[in-house]
Amino acid sequence: MHTKTILITGAARGIGRGCAEYFLERGWNVAAMDISEISESDRLAVFRGDVSREDDAAAAVKFALERFGRLDALINNAGLAQPSYGPPETLPLEQWNRVIAVNLTGVFLMSRQAAPALRAARGAIINIASTRALMSEPNSEAYAASKGGVVALTHALALSLGPEVRVNCISPGWVETTPDAQRSEADRRQHPAGRIGVPRDIAAAAEYLIGAEFVTGQNLVVDGGMTKKMIYV
Ligand SMILES: NC(=O)c1ccc[n+]([C@@H]2O[C@H](COP(=O)([O-])OP(=O)(O)OC[C@H]3O[C@@H](n4cnc5c(N)ncnc54)[C@H](O)[C@@H]3O)[C@@H](O)[C@H]2O)c1
Question: Which of 34, 100, 183 for a ligand 1 pocket mutation test, highest count of atoms within 8 Å of Cβ?
C-alpha cells in the first residue's frame, strides 16, 4: 500500500464523495474539503471550508500537509452544479458572481495554494469542468461560462506549473449522484454508452489522468458519448 495523498474539494456528496471513496479503496490518504460536514475515518481527514475564500484554500492545503505530510494530487470538484437562475436579462449579478467565484475562482485559488506542495511531489491537478463548457441549454450562462473558464484555466495552469505538475480537466456529462433516483429507460438509452454516468466513472478518469505522465492541459470528456451524438431532426 502506498502513502500518496489526494485533496478533494466538494467531497461531502456526489462526484466528490465518489472520488473520495474510490481513492480510499485504492490506499490513498484523502483530505476532503467541503462547506458541508463530512465524518472522518481511517485515512480520511476533513477540512470545513469554502473554496472561494483564499484563506480557506490555504488552510485546507496546510491541513492536508499537517495530517499526511505530502500532497500528490488535487481534485478541484466543488461547484454549484447547474444553478438555474433564469434568463440572462434578469440574472441577478450577485448570483453570476457567486457561480464564478465558486466554480472558477475556487479552482484558481486551490490550485495556486497547492502548487508548492504539488511541485515538490511532482503531482497532478484534476479540475472538474462540464460538457456545458462545450454545449448549452437556455438560461445557463453563469454555469457555462464558469466551466468554459475551467477548461481554459486548465491549459494555462498546465503551462505555468509544468513540468513538475500536470494539470488536466474532466468534463462530465450526466452523472447520477442520487443512488436511488428513478430514471427512465429512454434516459439510459439516449446515451451511446447505454447508461447514465455514476461518480465512479469520474473517479476512474481522474485516476487515469493522475497516472498519465505524457498528458497535460487536456479536457477529457466523460459523458457516455452524448456530445458526439448528432441530434438534427
Ligand atoms: N452531476 C453531474 O451530472 C455533473 C455534470 C457535469 C459537471 N459536474 C460538476 O461536478 C462537480 C460535482 O458535482 P455534483 O453533481 O457532485 O454536485 P453536488 O451538488 O452533489 O456536490 C457538490 C459538493 O460541493 C460542495 N460545495 C459547494 N460549494 C462549495 C464551496 N464554495 N466550497 C467547498 N465546497 C463546496 C457541496 O457542499 C457539495 O458537497 C461540480 O463542479 C459540477 O459542476 C457535475
Answer: 34
Does residue 178 line the site of ligand 1, with CB under 6 A?
A: no
What three-state secondary structure class fits 39?
coil
Using the atom order of ligand 1, give the atom closest to the CA of residue 56. 32
CATH of residue 157:
3.40.50.720
pLDDT for 79-130, tens place per residue?
A: 997 666 799 999 999 999 999 999 999 999 999 999 999 999 999 999 999 9
198 Cβ below 6 A of ligand 1: no
Interval between CA 130 and ligand 1 midpoint (Å):
11
Is 119 within a domain? yes
Q: How many domains does the chain have?
A: 1
Question: With left for phi above 0 and alpha for psi between -120 and 50, is residue 152 left, alpha or beta?
Answer: alpha
pLDDT, tens digit, 9 for 90 and up, residues 2-12:
589 999 999 99
- CA–CA gap between residue 48 and residue 12 (Å, rounded): 10
| Per annotation, catalytic residue among 22, 85, 143, 232 | 143
pTM of the model: 0.98
- Whole-number Cα distances in Å, 157 to 51, 99, 163: 17, 21, 11
Does residue 233 sit within a domain? no
**Residue 143 annotated to the active site:** yes
Element (H, E) at 149: helix 141-161
Q: Which domain holds residue 216?
A: 5-228
